[in-house]
Structures
1.
Amino acid sequence: MIVTWNLEEEVARLSAELAIRFKMKDLGELHHFLGLEMERKKSAISLCVKKQDSVFVSTTEAEYKAFVLAAPEAIWLRRLMEGINEKVLCG
């Protein structure tokens, strides 16, 4: 489970509540999730697709494959972040 919030106190409070019911482990700052590279900035989270596991004949094929693999995860993650009122930057 990924817990994120603008207020560190709220993250600590929620984590403590969840730890009562579930076995949890803090893995620190999130860097990669579902093939996306993530970077937390002051007021937003930046998402990038940088890893490429396959060798393709053309850059167009590689870009298409990256888009097809990343798009559903990016949509899901964006909806999740909007659901907790977290700003999402696209670009």
Note: The CA atoms of residues 64 and 70 lie 10 Å apart.
2.
Amino acid sequence: MVQDNYFMPDVPRVLWEKRPNIPIIIGTNKDEWAFMELAFVAFGIKNLSTYDEGWFECEYSVLASYLNKSESVNSKSLLEAVYVPYGLAADDHLGWLKLSVS
């Protein structure tokens, strides 16, 4: 970080010391959906064999339909190219589960 006397009027250490004593909440929801998917498996709503290439294509084709209303770009193929690791087998259930929660 750079002190520019405009947006950042001082260095963070000094700004922190001058900060009023008010409560703050710090957290993350990075793995929030992972908990849900694992709960689905634990309670028998889904099983590990649910997660495969066909499941991905079904789930992400819905997501792709929200991203692209025209047919000029194949959004599902784009999502696959970005998110599916090279060499992930169609029946690697744990690999597809990891993909769904990352």
Note: The helical segments are 12-18, 32-42, 53-67, 75-83, 93-101.
3.
Amino acid sequence: MRGPGDDPTLSEAELIGRRTAWFKVYTRQRNVFAPTGGGPCTCPCCGHTTLSERGRYEICEECGWEDDGQDDHVSAAVRGGPNGRLSLDASRSTTFTETDARSAA
């Protein structure tokens, strides 16, 4: 199934090939995991203790970051996974800018 951002000039086979290649690279990333039951854990984006575990795609209730295991060692990388086109650094910057604005109001 084609998505709205897919290149219409690609054949189905080319599209599947690109998606498969992206998935292989994405799943080879070094991720941070915490064992189940070891929580609560802090969100890598906002730092609040909102996650029951790390690296298991839980969404932070404070900032909305989906924890895919990305952390400081690759915080500038845009992985293109659940957090779209945001790196952890960019999301942190946005989160803290919004927090500062709310605090000043």
Note: The longest helix spans residues 88-104.
4.
Amino acid sequence: MEYMSNIDHLNLGGNTLTTFLTVLEETSVSRAAERLGVTQSAVSHTLEKLRGIFDDPLFVRVGLGIESTARARALQGSVESMGAGQAGTEETCCVWR
């Protein structure tokens, strides 16, 4: 939780955290968007918000895909423990449709 201790949790809703975890799992913004049932643009905007909150790129381009940064990987456990990983993707993201 060290990385999350100084973060304003009110700026991190379930959709945002679920998007972060999905991009981590899929290692692709396009595949994450498809899985979440949202546009690629919506995922990109969410990642931009997270980059500002965590002051880290979180994901960097590698070849045709993306790779998570050390900070993103370190945040994964904290985000999962906040419950974002427990929420159903379909339920969590339906407000974007």
Note: The chain has one domain: 2-82.
